[in-house]
Structure formats: structure tokens, C-alpha cells
Design brief:
Chain lengths: 94, 94, 94, 94, 94
Amino acid sequence: MYVCKVIGKIISTVKNEKLVGHSIVLVQAAALNDRGSLEADGPVFAAADTIGCGEGNFVLVTRGSNARYACKCAEAPVDMAVVGILDGGQWGLS
Amino acid sequence: MYVCKVIGKIISTVKNEKLVGHSIVLVQAAALNDRGSLEADGPVFAAADTIGCGEGNFVLVTRGSNARYACKCAEAPVDMAVVGILDGGQWGLS
Amino acid sequence: MYVCKVIGKIISTVKNEKLVGHSIVLVQAAALNDRGSLEADGPVFAAADTIGCGEGNFVLVTRGSNARYACKCAEAPVDMAVVGILDGGQWGLS
Amino acid sequence: MYVCKVIGKIISTVKNEKLVGHSIVLVQAAALNDRGSLEADGPVFAAADTIGCGEGNFVLVTRGSNARYACKCAEAPVDMAVVGILDGGQWGLS
Amino acid sequence: MYVCKVIGKIISTVKNEKLVGHSIVLVQAAALNDRGSLEADGPVFAAADTIGCGEGNFVLVTRGSNARYACKCAEAPVDMAVVGILDGGQWGLS
């Protein structure tokens, strides 16, 4: 899975009808810095939020057909989904 | 999903017969700049337009088998599809 | 889909038996330059040619399981296939 | 498969219920240096550990739907899984 | 497919039981240099060898579920497989 930081919400009124009801968040890929801490430092993506994450959380993001399983919607045109929030106190996370 | 900017239409007369009827747009991957705004700054792709997007729109682009679901054509040789238009007033979008 | 330039043919006599009969071309990912024109400027890939493209053509290349659909061979170990040729007169193409 | 170095464990208490029971590790993509040795030098990912790897191991990481097969859980929202540990004495590994 | 150079064998005694019996090789993605020749110049991967390639060969590597087809093992946790060897006398190959 990608390890990403949640940057904020994405609002998209005009969308494919199978995306209706899915909360979408903007996330940025994380990297490990010289101090062994995770920091947002890479491309941004849009992911469906399946577990209620918040801005600033570091999260696990699954991709491809796996994302549809996470959304419990076999035909959702979703290819990235947040499936876990990293606990604080590890990898430099407060 | 990728977050991309729609650059314009792609015309392809000679194509796989299962692509006939699909409108294809040229999109460019977006990045978050220092001011927290989205801007087109990455590789370009061709995506099937399933919701009627226009040049300059920032859009959600799904990939892989998910794109076939978005196109409502189980055998379309499409691996990227536009599935949402970002509303204005967020992420520096007018 | 990737937008690529066809660089030439690839000959591979020793190959998986399910690749027999598929014409394979070397393609290079395209980018948009400052003048808004497409040019070959990225990694190279090998793709099955499903529509008879030629050296110098700019083409649409689909990936993953979608490529098997394009090849009309459900078990072909092909993960990239050319599915369209861009018309001239757009994106700086002659 | 990606060749990666295991950096350590990832703890994620809040997660998709289908991730419960899967041990998740932080891995970093490896590259081949000038001496022909593997070293951690690339993006980091989170992968399900299906074989009991440890920090410092160089491992094989499979992606996409293949990762679900490795986890023996057809609906696990896992898109990367550790499926092998490289033996020492090759590629500069102690 | 990726075009890669075979760098050598990978030995992995501790592995997922469905990987047993598959020969795994270390490959490096190839690029096209200024002289129009292929050379190893990119990330390294581990791929199942389905056709008996050797060190120094330039090969076609398929990814994702396509790799399982190439391995004739529907549940092999393999996401990259060598499916062809490029003939000599093209692309600067001896």
C-alpha cells in the first residue's frame, strides 16, 4: 500500500453516479527522511475514505481492484482507498 | 485516483473497434504547489471522458479495470477514465 | 492510456507460446513540450500492436488486463497494447 | 516483484475490518549500486507480511490482485505483500 | 511490457509456498540511449522466468495478473514474469 498524508477533502459535484456517497480525500505520498520520520513528499492522489480519516493523518492507501473491495462496492470506479490510519508514536508521528 | 488537468481532446480515427464511441481527452497529472494550489505538472495521459469534462477542468481519473466500470463497457480497452470534476473554490481552483 | 511514439519493431523468437502471433513494437512515452506539442520523452515499453501502427506514429497504449481485451486473447501474457493512432494536425503532429 | 528492504513494523489500530489480523511492514524499494549490491534507495510502501520477515531483510514484494492471493484472503484490501526473503551471500547481502 | 536486462538469479529459500518451483531473476529496466541502443538504466525488479533466459539477455517482462497467466499458475503470487528474449542484431544488441 502507499503510505500517505491526508491533505484535505475533495468536493466533486459533477461525477460518475457510482462515486456518489463516497467521501474523497486528497492525499500526498510520504517518504522516509534522514531522521527515519515519515513526511509528505511526493505526488498527490485522490482516494476514497473508507474509515473516517482526518487532515494530517498518515494513512495506508490501497490501489487497483483492491480499492473496490475496501469500498464494499464491486462497481465503484475507485482505484485508491484509505484503509488504515497509522498510530502516533511511530515513524516520527506525534 | 489521479488528479489531473484536462488539456484538450484527442482525435484517433484509426483505433480498436471497442474504442469507437468513447470521447478521449488529453490530461496532465496535477501537483500541489507551495501555495497549496493544484497545478498541471507531470506526465500526460489519455483518458476516456465519462462525464463531459472540458478543457481546463481539474478532474478525478481512475485507472485499470476500474476504468472499464466507469465506461459501462466491460470489454473496452480503456485503462483510464475521467470520473469526476473538482468543484471550483478549493485547492486554488477558480 | 499512455500516449507514446512508436520507435520500431521488436523481434523475439524465444518467447512464451501465448505471445506467438502478436506483433510487438517498441514505444516511448510522450510528454507535452512548452509549445504544446507531443514529443517522445520518457521510458520505453514493448506493446502488442492490435491495429497496424507504424514507426513515428503517436499512439494510445492501454495497460494491464485491458491489454488482453484489446488482443482478443484472454490468456495472452500481454500487459500493454496499442489501441489507437492519433490523427495528424493535433498536438503538433504533422 | 519489487525488491525491498524491510524498515520496520507499522501499527494501525483504526483500519478497514478486512485488514485485521494482517501484520503490516514498512519497506523501501531497493536499487543496485555501482558495486552490484542491493541497497534501500527509493520510495517506501506498506506491505502485508505473509512469511514472517524481519527488519533488515531484503524481500520480494508482489503487488495488485496477486497480493490478495499471497494473503489467502480473497477480499483483503491489500495491494502489496511480502512473499520471499532473499538469501544472504548474494547481491552484497550479508 | 517492460524491456529489461537480466542481471542474474535471485535465491529465496524462505518464501510463500506458491512461489516454490518458480525460477526468479533480477532484471533492470532498459532505456534507449542517444545512439538508439537499449541499455540497462532504471529500477530493478524480480521476475519469474517462464522461458529460460540468461544473464545479459534483454527480455520482455509482463506485469500484474498477466504474469500469473505466463506462469501457468492461477494463484502464484507473481506480478512480473519474463515472457520473451529479444533477438540479437536489433536495438544495439549483439
